[in-house]
Write a structure and sequence with these properties.
By secondary structure, this protein is mainly β. It contains 3 helices and 17 strands. It is rod-shaped, with a radius of gyration of 40 Å. The N and C termini lie far apart (88 Å).
Length: 324
C-alpha cells in the first residue's frame, strides 16, 4: 500500500513521513516535538479528488479547571458514497477511512511552525464516519509553546474496501486535508508592587490644645475647621481622668503603625496610617503620646496626643497634633 501511496503522488510532506495503511500507524505514531527553533511546516496538497468529506471542522477552547486551557475538536469526516474512481466509473467501489493524522502549528506572521500535540483518539479503523467531538478527547494546551494563534491540520486517508469481489489492488489511497484555527490565551503580565508608583495623599500637621480649666478655653473641636462649633470630639475630665467623647457618626480608633510619642518626619501621607483591628470606640480614656485615628463623615484624621494635664478632679487639658 505504501508503494501505491508514493506511486500516485497523493501526499508528500517534507517535514513528516506519514503512512496511512493501518490502525497501528494511525494511533501509535509519535507527534512532532517543538522547540524554540521549531521548523516551518511545509506541506504539499492532498488528493485532487477524494471520497473523503470533511464537514464543519472547528475547535472550541475552554478552561481545564486548573488555570490552563484545553481544546475540543468538532466536525465530521465521512465518505461520499457517490464517488467514482477515474477509469472505473462503472464499478461501485466502497471505501473505508483507515487512518487519521493531526499536525499542530504555531502561526506567526502567516508562517506555521510545528508544535507538539497529542490528540487522544477512540476510533476503531477502518470506519466510514468519524465525529471528532466524540472520537477525540479534549487536548491540553500546556505542551504548546507560546501563545496566540495556532492551527491544527487534520489529515484523513481512505482506501478501497476489498469487499464486493472487485479487484481493487490498483485503486489509489486517497487523502484529504482540512485545518482548524484556535487561540491559546497569553498569560497576563503580573505587575510587581515595586514597579507601581506609590500613592501619597499628603497631609499636614495641625496643633491644638483642648482645655476646660477656664471658662474661655476651647474643650471641643471640629477637626475640619479647628473650631468648637459642630465638634467631632469633646474633652471630658472625670476623677482626674481625661476622655474624648465622640459626636454621633464619629469613630475613635487606635492607630497601629506609628511610634509611640514620635511624629513622622518629612512628607506625611495619609496612606501611611492604619487603624488597629477591633479598637473602635466612641469614648476613649486619654494617655499622653498615644496615636489615634479619628473617622468622621467629613474625612479621617490621624492624631497623636501630647501631654495630658490636670488642674483638679474635673478640669484639665490635652495637646493634640492631627493631620488633615
Amino acid at each position: 500500500m505504501n508503494k501505491m501511496f508514493w506511486k500516485y503522488g497523493l501526499l508528500a510532506a517534507s517535514m513528516f513521513a506519514l503512512s496511512a495503511c493501518s490502525e497501528d500507524s494511525s494511533s501509535n505514531a509519535e507527534e512532532s516535538t517543538s522547540s524554540s527553533s521549531a521548523a516551518q511546516i511545509e506541506m504539499s496538497s492532498a488528493s485532487e479528488v477524494s471520497p473523503l468529506v470533511m464537514d464543519k471542522l472547528g475547535a472550541d477552547v475552554m478552561s481545564d479547571g486548573q488555570g490552563g486551557e484545553m481544546v475540543q475538536l468538532k466536525g465530521t469526516i465521512s465518505l461520499d458514497y457517490g464517488f467514482r474512481v477515474e477509469g472505473r466509473e462503472d464499478d461501485e467501489i466502497f471505501f473505508n477511512i483507515d487512518s487519521l493524522r493531526f499536525i499542530a502549528g504555531h502561526v506567526d506572521n502567516g508562517t506555521v511552525y510545528e508544535s507538539p500535540l497529542q490528540v487522544p483518539m477512540t476510533i476503531n479503523f477502518p470506519t466510514d464516519r468519524i465525529a471528532l467531538g466524540t472520537s477525540t478527547a479534549k487536548i491540553q494546551l500546556a505542551p504548546l509553546e507560546g501563545c496566540g494563534d495556532f492551527r491544527i491540520y487534520v489529515w484523513a486517508y481512505a482506501s478501497a474496501s476489498e469487499e464486493g469481489g472487485l479487484d481493487v489492488s490498483k485503486v489509489p489511497v486517497y487523502s484529504s486535508i482540512d485545518s482548524v484555527d484556535f487561540v491559546k490565551a497569553c498569560p497576563k503580565e503580573e505587575v510587581s508592587s515595586s514597579s507601581v508608583e506609590a500613592v501619597c495623599t499628603e497631609v499636614a500637621a495641625t496643633e491644638a490644645t483642648l482645655s476646660n480649666m477656664l471658662g474661655t478655653d476651647q474643650y471641643a473641636i471640629n477637626l475640619v475647621t479647628g473650631l468648637a462649633e459642630n465638634p467631632h470630639l469633646t474633652l471630658e475630665i472625670v476623677d482626674n481622668m481625661a476622655y474624648f467623647q465622640a459626636a454621633p457618626g464619629v469613630e475613635i480608633w487606635e492607630e497601629e503603625t506609628q511610634d509611640f510619642g514620635l511624629l513622622p518626619e518629612g512628607q506625611v501621607c495619609v496612606e501611611n496610617f492604619k487603624t488597629a483591628f477591633g479598637s473602635q470606640t466612641n469614648r476613649l480614656e486619654l494617655m499622653g503620646n498615644m496615636w489615634l485615628y479619628i473617622k468622621t463623615p467629613e474625612g479621617n484624621f490621624p492624631m497623636m496626643l501630647g501631654k495630658v494635664r490636670y488642674q483638679d478632679e474635673k478640669t484639665g487639658s490635652v495637646t493634640i497634633t492631627y493631620y488633615k
